[in-house]
Design a protein that fits this description.
The protein is 10% helix and 46% strand. It is mostly beta strands and 183 residues long.
Length: 183
């Protein structure tokens, strides 16, 4: 039974490690993956892994935090979706070094959804992406990693009006975040 649990743990960790590197240094995927949480439930039959309670994931330059991380695998055991959530006023966070010599990329939101097979990230509620002095803030940000396209969607706020997106690009012309804001 212990050997079966060890194999399952290795399988899930390997899939999670491979998926979190879409924005990170290429060398990160060769580093050890560390997942620390208060509880961990992994089910190979359903393809769902749930990590709860002050979850911290580290691999190379990549650092992920949240109150809960849920992973979903497809029928071929490839990771389809990673959902990182914060709780109360704590935001989920994803920090990585995309290139040597560049500032780290830091993304925070109440919920971060990552789709590794599509190379796509969705940040929901109090979303922010920062790299160096450049930043993008909004309530709903979607980022296509492969195409380097950002879409910001207005959502209704509790105050009744639509949300707004704020983009700050420094005047040096070297924008560290490519963006194409939506409506």
């Amino acid at each position: 039974m212990l050997l079966k649990k060890q194999r399952l743990s290795f399988w899930l960790f390997a899939l999670l490690a491979a998926s979190l590197n879409g924005l990170a240094l290429n060398t990160d995927q060769n580093q050890k993956l560390y997942i620390v949480s208060q509880t961990a439930d992994m089910n190979r039959t359903t393809g769902i892994g749930v990590f709860k309670g002050d979850v911290v994931i580290d691999q190379g330059s990549t650092h992920v935090t949240g109150d809960q991380v849920v992973t979903h695998n497809d029928k071929n055991n490839k990771l389809e979706e990673v959902i990182i959530t914060g709780v109360n006023n704590n935001l989920a966070s994803y920090k990585t070094l995309p290139e040597v010599g560049k500032p780290p990329l830091v993304a925070t939101a109440a919920t971060i959804k990552y789709y590794p097979q599509q190379h796509y990230v969705i940040l929901l509620k109090n979303a922010s992406i920062k790299q160096g002095a450049n930043s993008i803030n909004g309530e709903h940000l979607e980022y296509d990693i492969a195409k380097q396209l950002l879409n910001s969607t207005a959502t209704a706020l509790t105050s009744g009006g639509p949300s707004r997106t704020t983009i700050v690009i420094q005047p040096d012309g070297n924008t560290s975040i490519s963006s194409t804001p939506g409506s």
